[in-house]
Amino acid sequence: MSGVGRIVVVGASLAGLRAAETLRDEGFAGSLTLVGEEPHPPYDRPPLSKQVLLGRVHAHDVGLPSRREVDARWKLGVRAVGVDPIKKRVLLADGEELPFDRLLIATGTRARPWANSDEARLDGVLTLRTNDDAARLAELLDAGPRRVLVIGAGFIGSEIASACRERGLDVTVAERGPSPLVGALGGTLGSYAGRLQRAHGVDLRCGVTVTALKGSNGRLTGAEFSDGRRIDADVAVVALGAVRNTEWLDGSGLAAGPRGVACDAGCRAFDMYGIVTDDVFVAGDVARFPHPLFEYQMLSLEHWGNAVAQAEVAAHNMISPGPRRRPHLSVPAFWSSQFGLNIKSVGVPTFSDQVVIAQGSLREGRFVAVYGYRGRVTAAVSVNRAKWLEHYQYLIETAAPFPPAPGAADRSGSPAPVPSDVPSAQLLSHGPTVALTGHLPDRHLILVRAESPPTAAHAR
């Protein structure tokens, strides 16, 4: 811990809070400052699209419990606008400069806005990311709108649609891709999710986009679709994925961009030349990091568990000498509750070429789907059958052969695998919650040297 007297954490949400707690748990006694753009203390985001929209809890009553006092200075409601890597200072929008010996970037993501700014300003059009967003959406749903339009059928969009139907509200879901959740779970489970939504009364429209939001006197009245159809709607929720908060790092010299901030497995940020830094660390949704289980591709994860685990590793490494640092190698995991189902996942379903229903059946609505890539297990998704996931996590960690061997309690043999049908991100109207941002493993990097700039490269 020698030479580390001042730590600044930019991002005062889940990852920032857990990092601060870990720093104190491991004996850091120096100056600790947390900077957050939102004015609220750290709060839990998963309930915003679930319990809050169902009226079971108020949007401003979902604060994150503290595991311990962190004895920190909190700068809330203030944006970080830059980093001076020479003077080692974080620049704030209010003009203050925060010196640091170690910096943790945990700025997370924000909701992708509707592209047409005039339409986005219509009363009744909103996104769902913050507790203020959730409070406003819950208020609109309480008013009993004639119809809710959800644009995008990823996990957030699907959970919003589920809450609307549980409230008895008419809801239309528009998805550019072939089915809901396809960008996260592939075609087999995506098709199942589509049938499930329609069975619960959702007006699900796949393979289309919303081309315009219509309004009158500043209020939303409806929408037009790429297939020429129109609907009337009082509320439109834009669920088009997330934007990583990296713009404030422009000019910092760090490897930061739309896909996040690149770092090594020890959470140390890379600079723009691919050289690892020793005083800037990254954690949470904004991080891109390599994982050996997935052929060292750079992973970007928007998962609660990953934010916690990565923040703890980053905090430990910030104050530990090199030989005592450890890698962030936990297996990705997430969960969702929608349309009466409990969906849980381990691994990276999109890192796959095949999938097999290893236990249960789609017809029963209780099953485990196991994903494989090049003959080894890479992910498993359970629907109302979560107790088996620990077993499949072990198979992922040990690179077990795919398809998995028979022997589950309710199976005498294993059905034949089918293609996982993971679509190109260009076919989706929402981003996946897991993004593989390196070159595909079966592609080769070709350096173009003849009569080309020395930095030119492309993949084939």
From TrEMBL:
Q: Name the segments for region: Disordered.
A: 405-424
Answer whether the UniProt record assigns the keyword Oxidoreductase to this protein.
Answer: yes
InterPro entries given for it?
FAD-oxidoreductase/Apoptosis, FAD/NAD-bd_sf, FAD/NAD-binding_dom, FAD/NAD-linked_Rdtase_dimer_sf, Reductase_C
A single GO molecular-function term is: oxidoreductase activity
List, for all copies, the residue spans of the domain called Reductase C-terminal. Answer: 334-405
User: Which Pfam family is one of those matched by this entry?
Assistant: Reductase_C
Which of UniProt's keywords are assigned here?
A: FAD, Flavoprotein, Oxidoreductase
Q: Does the keyword Nucleotide-binding apply?
A: no
User: Which cofactors are reported in the record for this sequence?
Assistant: FAD
Composition skew (Low complexity), residue ranges: 407-424
Q: What is its EC number?
A: 1.-.-.-
**Name of the molecule in the record:** FAD/NAD(P)-binding oxidoreductase
Organism expressing this protein natively? Streptomyces sp. 900116325
